[in-house]
Amino acid sequence: MFLLKSARLGMASKALTRSFLTNVAPRPAANTLAHTYAKSLNNVPETKVTRLPNGFTVATESNPNFQTATVGVWIDAGSRFENEKNNGTAHFLEHMAFKGTKSRTQLQLETQIENMGGHLNAYTSREQTVYYAKCLSSDVGSSVEILSDILQRSNYSEDAIERERDVILRESDEVEKQKEEVVFDHLHGTAFQGNSLGYTILGSRENIKSITRADLVEYVEKNYTPDRMVLVGAGGVDHDALVKLAESHFGGLKASSTGRSQILKPRFVGSDVRARYDDHPYAHVALAVEGASWTSSDYWALLVAQAIVGSWDRSLGAAGHVSSKLAQKVHEFSLANSFMSFNTSYSDTGLFGIYAVSENFLALDDLVHHIQQEWHRLAMSVSEAEVFRAKNQLKTSLLLSLDGTTAVAEEIGRQLLVYGRRLTPWEVDGLIEKVTAQDVMKVASEYIYDKEVAVVGYGQVDGLQDYNRLRAAMSPIYY
Prior knowledge:
The chain has helices spanning 38-42, 89-96, 106-116, 140-152, 158-177, 179-191, 205-210, 213-223, 239-250, 299-309, 325-332, 364-380, 384-400, 405-419, 425-433, 437-447, 467-472; strands spanning 47-51, 57-62, 68-75, 119-124, 129-136, 229-235, 271-276, 283-291, 311-313, 338-345, 350-358, 454-459. By secondary structure, the chain is an alpha+beta fold. It folds into two domains: 45-250, CATH 3.30.830.10; 271-478, CATH 3.30.830.10.
C-alpha cells in the first residue's frame, strides 16, 4: 500500500524581508558572489512561475537529470481559517480527500497510485494545507489529474465521514501521547487566547464528533479557491507541460462566492498553563515570547539568535562540548535531558522560545533561571565569533533541508503563498550573512528583554516557579 497520510508536519519557516517582496533579485554573476559556497549557490536551477487568468499559480524547479518528481497543491488554508464551532474541519478534509471521488472509488484511487508505484500524501498546518504526490516523471500528468480529482470532486459521503470520525479520534489519542505536540498546542492556546491561531489542528474531540458534511463543503467552497492555490513541481518536471496540465485541470476553478475568511492578528498574552501529573516520568517546560512574522525584517536576526541558543541532547557524544553556552550550563549542572530553541513564524506574528525536557524535577527553577539568563545575554553581550558560527550552522541547516524533490517543492509552495515568489538560495545566504552581533542584540532587546512570556508546564512540574516570579525575571530590574 502506497497511499500515505500525514496529519501534522512541522513548518520550518523560511522567510524574506519586505524589501524583496516587490523586486525579483537578478541572478548574480559567478564572479560577483561574495558569499560562502558561492559556486554551488549559483548552480541552483531556476524557479519558474506562471499565473493562470483565474489566479491559480504554477511553480517549478526542473532538473532534467531526475527521473522522479514531486507535484502537489499548496493551499493558503488551515486551522487558522476556522472558528470555534468548526475547528478541526481542515484536518478532517485532509482525511476525506482519500475516501473516493465522483469518478473514483477509494479502492480505485488506491489501486491507481499503487500501480504507478507512487506516494500520495497530505498534511494540515495552522496556515496551510498540502496535497502532494511523489512519482516517476512519466506519471506527472496522472498525478496532477488525481490531485485535481480529490480536491474538486471528492464525495464526502456520510458513511465515509462517520467511519473517519473514529480514525481521527484514535489519531487524537495518539497525539496526546506525543508530549511535544501537547506542549506546543498548549503554548499556542495560552499565547494566542481568543484567536484562531490558538486552536489545535485536529480540533476538540467534541468537534471531531460533530463536524458535518455541510461543514466540509462550506470550508472547501470558501477556502479552496484558485487565488490561494499553488501547483508545485520539483525534479523531473517540465514547466510548460505542467502549466498546460494546470489549465486543463484547474483552469475552471472560480473564486469563492462567500468571500475569503477573515483572520485577525492575535494579541500575544503573557500567561501560563500547568498540567501537573506526578506519575509522569518527566517535566516538559516551554517558554516563549512573541516572535516575528515570515515577512518581518527582524526574522533573520531572530533566526540567528535561535541558532546561538541552539539545541542539545545529553545522549549526544559531544554533549558537554558544544558551542551553546546554555547547553554547557545545562550539562554542567544536569538540569535537563534535552532542550530545543525554536523560532516559529506565521503570516503576522510568531513564537520565539525554548522547549526543555527534564527528569531532574528539583532543578526546574535553576533550568528556567539559566534559560532567562541566556536570553538576557542575547540582548547584551553576543560576540561576532558566535554569530559567525551560528550563521554558518544556520545556512548549512537550511540547505540540508532542501535535500530531495519533496523538500524543494515544500519550500517553493510555502514561499509562493507567503511572498508570491521563491526566495533564491543566494538571497537567503545574503540575508543571513548581513546579520551582525549588533542586529542580534537589537532584536533580543525588542522581542525578549522584559517582554511578556507564555509558559507551559506538563508532567512533574511542581518545582516550576510561580508565573509572577518567572515574568519578573524577564525584567532587567530583577537582576
